[in-house]
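Following up on my earlier thread - several people asked me to post the actual chain instead of describing it. Fair enough. Here it is, all 138 residues.
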Amino acid sequence: MVKGLLVDRRHDPRVRVSLELKFKIFDKPELVQFRRLEEKVIQAGRAESLSVEGLALFTRTAVKAEQGLELVFDLPEAREPLKAFAKVAWCQYNRSEGIYEVGLKFLEINKLDASFLAKYMVEKLEDLMKPLLRYWPV
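Reply from S.P.:
Thanks for posting it. Predicted structure:
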C-alpha cells in the first residue's frame, strides 16, 4: 500500500447532488427502531454525494460516529419526501467553513423510497455517461 493513498471501500457508485434534508439524531442506531421522534429536535443539512448505500451530509449540527439519524429529503419526481434511517460512519469538522462533514450509511429505507432512490441514481449516472457515449458508437 502506498503511503498517503486513500482506498475507497464503497461498493456502489456515488453521484454529486445538492439536496436539502432534515434529520433527527439518536444516540445509538439501534434506538431508531423505537421511533421516539417527537422527543428529538429537527436539524437541517445538505447532501452533496449520494449512493444507494448512503450519503455525504454537510451540517452545522455536531454528530458523532455510530449515532443514528432519521433523514427526510426530497428527490425530483418523488411524490412525497423520502425517509431513511442511517448510521454515522464518520464525521469531521471543517474549521474553515464551520460545518461538519458526515458520512452516513443507510440502515433502513422502505421499498418504495428505495426504488425512487435507485431510479434517481440511474438517471444521474446516465447523465454523467452521455458525454462519454459519443466515443463508443452503438
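Strands lie at 15-26, 43-50, 54-59, 68-73, 82-94, 99-109. That should answer part of your original question.
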